[in-house]
Amino acid sequence: MVKKNNKKEKFYITTAIAYVNAKPHIGHALEIIQADAIARYMRAAGRDVFFGTGTDEHGDKIRRAAAQSQKTTKQFVNEISAIFKSQKKVLNLSYDKFIRTSNKKEHWLGAYKLWTELEKKGDIYKKKYEGLYCVGCEKFLTEKDLIDDKCPLHQKAPEKIEEENYFFRLTKYARAIENAIASDNLKILPATRKNEMLAFVRDGLEDVSFSRLKKAAPWGIPILKSDQTMYVWCDALSNYLSIIGYGKNTKTFKKWWPANAHIVGKDILRFHAIYWPAMLLSADLPLPKSILAHGFVTSGGQKMSKTLGNVVDPFEATKKHGVDALRYYLLREIPSDGDGDFSWEKFKNRYNDDLAKGLGNFVSRIAHLLAGEKIAVKLPISRKIQQEIRRMNVRVEKHVGEFRLHEALAAIFQLVQFGDSYINEKQPWKNKNAKVSRDLSALAIATGEALLPFMPETATKILAIFPIKAGYIYPKKNKALFPRAE
Ligand code: MSP
To answer: Which domains does the chain have, with CATH numbers?
Structure first.
């Protein structure tokens, strides 16, 4: 029977769109894998999901990187963007759409529409301006942002800029933003970041320059009938609207907006928690439901940088032990809401300890014990096992909801540990019975199902080892899921 009210609740999730001044590294992989795990989790939970990502292709940082490469800017951004896009297959991502801010048809219409809305509200005005600009951050800095006269993030002295620009009346929305954040109408996780943002708003905001002189920053969206290009952050943030049809297709836009979750790094939280809501309020659009801020992946204890030569390539990392080993590492070893380190040594240890010895061995033990049996699904699962499985699922749901994916995985791996001790206790190789077989198959299947959002390839393999047909489970012998790495 079809239920009357069977409309699925929608869930719109985004990642930041990466600059295409350089190829992706595992910091980018962390973010998109986190978003992918949440998107997959929500789909499995019955939500109607739209998962958007893409590349941020304008601004002087990119124009300069292109100039160094001896390629035209267009050629350069096409190539790097294509590498980002190709992560879909390599990292096994389930995003629905990939947007490029250089794409006029897909993106510019939406960006222009948003700009026009801000203008109509009277929130855009012209002002002569003198300031310090960091091209690395693509933002104006004040003296108090500097350490030893340099941008602390890019270790470079900012450039002095004197221009007449368009400004956006950010200050007008300070109180509304503060309220939205404080009340969790715009929920920022983790709480420490929420408090940082509140402190930042309370400290006092200033209006922001929202355009650059075309002759100083030519690579961007031109502002019609003017000598200016759109400030790259105004351009980039509007991708969250244009990707779902803003300015083009009201129906899809209405269906998906507001976003349920923007996943971003801590370094760009201010743009998302302060500028972005102000722009939306100005355009009379609802605010996103939540912003989830992750930390940084460091490499061998240090910030990843080309100069240090410690940038980890996600493509190379998947070649070592397969895509799920990387997904597992990034989701388990790096706390979702904090910083964490990657080193090849740690990567191998996690792989051997948790995946080869832990999960892989657990699945193989059960598969070998049960192979060839025919286990009725309707045989009751013992109370204790049912409880453990339920407890794990409840914990996973809670941790995903709180943006603690590492804890969600920990809960699944605790079930694996529990399962291992259950096997040891029951010693089914001595006295196997239908009841124990049913319990073990339930543990393996529950583990496979719970892992689907996090390690989709592995989870699918596990479920294929315990196929269910017409009310019976037919366990098979399997090849090791994770052969030990020497
Ligand atoms: N283009 C802007 C985002 C615009 S969103 C409207 C940008 N691009 S970026 O390429 O510099 O960063 C993209 C995302 O990757 C950001 O969320 C950033 O925090 C994240 N990361 C970049 N380096 C990182 C690590 N080392 N570790 C984890 N994430 C990091 O900012």
So the answer is: 351-473 (1.10.730.10)
